């Protein structure tokens, strides 16, 4: 977690760094800080709270000049969020200044050593240990900053993306990366540093993404030298042309990124299957699957590893893969999988799902699966992310940047990719007839316009949200393909409105949760026409007899549920395996409107961060 930004060049650094921090705030927003250097004085300011608090403080308190600057927005790991623990951190001499995203796991033993050598610490952070370690190495070995960073990092266990500068070297920033992302934007005689490219997209389209265990020495008006942290190898960096544009990372007239991203789903789903779903030719083309078809066809089973919403998409895929391609699927929380000595063989295919491509637990699960010889396939949104690079092959979702902490379009596009994969494998295995296959492709092609239609329920969902916004608990029920959607609906409500919510398979209700139902309990039931409709209607009756308040998510034109439910929200009809792509829409809208009505911070809910790069 945490976002880092830096600038060195000919412009004032402050506006670039502060705006960059605002764009990276999705990565953490407990506290923020900035250090600006005009060649003579370092102006460092940091505060608990949001980047807007920092901005207010800076604009009132200190002048903001300097053409070198670094900034940080924090999601606390070591040390509570307060002013002192915020980054940047000085070294003891005051010469070095650092920002850091990640965790130094052996910070305690390093700190004890440094204390023995007379160093003192103001904060509880691992980062202050790192900057003093660099200082100590630099002084003892009488070496330049770049070399000192390299030597110090070789003593460190953990993960980091750092940027550090030396007061005595006003034309240089040193950066390094292991396990946390770091991009360097290359402009005309200027360089940008950031956790992702969004802070510098209006200045340059050229960027280097450092690989793990690489560092770079960035010199004003000069060049960048990239090298390995271990050993002496010099790296010839690959300069990428960024596909991102400014529009994609701005709210575009919406009140919140989450609402924008909910409404982007028709396009995001279309972009995800564009060029891959070829209904005229009755084909699905996914290069990552095609190139590894033998491995997929020989697989005893598929193991899906993921966290949070991505795990829910994995659960949906379990139903889809098993139904269409007849391949057994196990869906695992990456955080559990990595530590429970799972049985994995070379005949397993592991699918890792992650929007950010940076989730630490998912990354560790991938490494474990690879070490046991499994073939690992990634489904990621962020191009070039750690998971995308670590997996043997993969297929990107093309959702575009997802900035709201609550995942929305990532979920539906993940399901889209996984459905395409299942269809391709089903065709290859002959578990689906050609007419069924073609029918599925044609139906999937209609999904963007059906999502568009489902979004039209927005005004009615707002009315429902207003009625139930003060409820303290919600139950979400679904069956089959829509059981994971119930889990996802509950997660969305919890994370942005802080209302307790639970998702359950509808038929499990009578084994426990039914005891919770009374006239205060809103129960959201996904009861679309396909699948186990009659059974779900019976479950609704059971809720009704106990006076629960029923919000039904139903297929257009439904009559039976309408008679029983307090409210029904309609979604267009589609084939059963594609219903999650539609039923999830009103649930996203419901949680969004409740959170807005409760005046919660929808895009940056408390205690959360967009990419969880710590375990
Ligand atoms: O980037 P990832 O998909 O790997 O992230 C996994 C979870 O952290 C993420 O889905 C989280 O649960 C979201 N906040 C849910 O909205």
Low-confidence stretches: none
Distance between the termini: 11 Å
Provide the domain count: 3
CATH class descriptor name of the largest domain: Alpha Beta
Q: Average pLDDT value?
A: 94
Bound molecules: 5-amino-5-deoxy-1-O-phosphono-D-mannitol
- Kindly state the number of beta strands: 27
* Rg calculated over all Cα atoms: 26 Å
What is the secondary structure topology, with strand pairs?
Layout: E1 3-8, H1 13-24, E2 31-37, E3 42-48, H2 51-61, E4 68-74, E5 89-90, E6 96-104, H3 107-116, H4 126-141, H5 145-153, E7 158-166, E8 172-178, E9 183-186, E10 191-194, E11 206-209, E12 214-219, E13 224-228, E14 234-235, E15 240-241, H6 257-263, H7 265-273, E16 277-278, E17 283-284, H8 287-290, H9 293-298, E18 301-306, H10 308-325, E19 329-333, H11 334-337, E20 348-354, H12 360-371, E21 375-380, H13 386-390, E22 393-396, H14 409-429, H15 434-454, H16 458-468, E23 473-478, H17 483-497, E24 500-505, E25 522-527, H18 533-545, E26 549-555, H19 560-564, E27 567-571, H20 580-597
Parallel strand pairs: 18-19, 18-20, 20-21, 21-22, 23-24, 23-25, 25-26, 26-27
Antiparallel strand pairs: 1-4, 1-10, 2-3, 2-4, 5-6, 6-7, 7-8, 8-12, 9-10, 9-11, 11-15, 12-13, 13-14, 16-17
5-amino-5-deoxy-1-O-phosphono-D-mannitol (M6R) binds at residues 307-310, 354-356, 359, 362, 405-407, 491, 495, 608, 611-612.
């Amino acid at each position: 977690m945490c976002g880092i930004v830096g600038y060195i060049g000919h412009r004032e650094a402050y506006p670039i760094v502060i705006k960059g921090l605002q764009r990276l705030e999705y990565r953490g927003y407990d506290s923020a800080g900035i250090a600006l250097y005009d060649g003579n004085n370092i102006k460092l300011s940091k505060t608990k709270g949001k980047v807007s608090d920092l901005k207010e403080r800076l604009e009132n308190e200190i002048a903001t000049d300097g053409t070198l600057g670094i900034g940080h927005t924090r999601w606390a790991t070591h040390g509570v969020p307060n002013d002192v623990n915020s980054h940047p951190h000085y070294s003891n001499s005051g010469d070095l200044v650092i920002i850091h995203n990640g965790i130094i796991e052996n910070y305690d033993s390093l700190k004890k050593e440094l204390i023995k050598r007379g160093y003192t610490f103001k904060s509880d952070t691992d980062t202050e240990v790192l900057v003093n370690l660099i200082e100590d190495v630099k002084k003892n070995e009488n070496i330049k900053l770049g070399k000192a960073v390299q030597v110090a990092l070789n003593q460190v266990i953990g993960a980091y993306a750092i940027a550090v500068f030396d007061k005595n070297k006003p034309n240089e920033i040193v950066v390094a990366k292991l396990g946390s992302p770091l991009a360097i934007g290359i402009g005309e005689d200027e360089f940008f540093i950031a956790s992702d490219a969004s802070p510098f997209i209006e200045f340059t389209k050229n960027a280097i993404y450092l690989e793990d265990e690489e560092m770079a020495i960035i010199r004003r008006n000069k060049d960048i030298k990239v090298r390995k942290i271990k050993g002496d190898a010099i790296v010839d960096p690959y300069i990428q042309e960024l596909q991102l544009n400014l529009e994609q990372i701005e709210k575009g007239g919406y009140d919140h990124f989450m609402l924008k991203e909910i409404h982007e789903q028709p396009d995001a789903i279309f972009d995800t299957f564009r060029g891959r779903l070829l209904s005229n030719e009755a084909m699905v083309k996914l290069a990552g699957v095609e190139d590894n078809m033998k491995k997929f066809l020989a697989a005893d089973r598929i193991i899906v590893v993921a966290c949070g919403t991505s795990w829910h998409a994995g659960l949906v895929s379990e139903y889809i893969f098993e139904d269409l391609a007849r391949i057994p699927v196990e869906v695992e929380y990456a955080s559990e999988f990595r530590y429970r000595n799972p049985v994995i063989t070379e005949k397993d295919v592991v699918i890792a799902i992650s929007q950010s491509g940076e989730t630490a637990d998912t990354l560790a699960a991938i490494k474990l699966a690879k070490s046991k010889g499994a073939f690992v396939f990634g489904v990621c949104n962020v191009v070039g992310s750690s998971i995308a690079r670590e997996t043997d092959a993969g297929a990107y979702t093309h959702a575009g940047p997802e900035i709201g902490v609550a995942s929305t379009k990532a979920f539906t596009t993940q399901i889209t990719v996984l459905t395409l994969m299942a269809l391709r494998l089903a065709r290859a295995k002959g578990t689906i007839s050609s007419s069924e296959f073609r029918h599925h492709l044609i139906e999937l092609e209609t999904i963007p316009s059906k999502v568009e239609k489902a979004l039209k329920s927005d005004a009615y969902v707002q009315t429902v949200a207003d009625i139930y916004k003060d409820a303290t608990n919600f139950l979400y029920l679904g069956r089959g393909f829509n059981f994971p959607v119930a889990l996802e609906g509950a997660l969305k409500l919890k994370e942005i409105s802080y209302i307790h919510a639970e998702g359950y398979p509808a038929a499990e209700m009578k084994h426990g949760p039914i005891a919770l139902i009374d006239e205060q309990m809103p129960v959201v039931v996904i009861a679309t026409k396909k699948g186990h409709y009659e059974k779900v209607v019976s479950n609704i009756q059971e809720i009704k007899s106990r006076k629960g308040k029923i919000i039904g998510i139903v297929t257009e034109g439904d009559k039976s549920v309408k008679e029983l439910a307090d409210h029904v929200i309609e979604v267009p009809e589609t084939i059963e395996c594609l219903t999650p792509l539609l039923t999830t829409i009103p649930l996203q809208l419901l949680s969004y409107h409740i959170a807005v009505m409760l005046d919660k911070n929808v895009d940056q809910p408390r205690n959360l961060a967009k990419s969880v790069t710590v375990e």
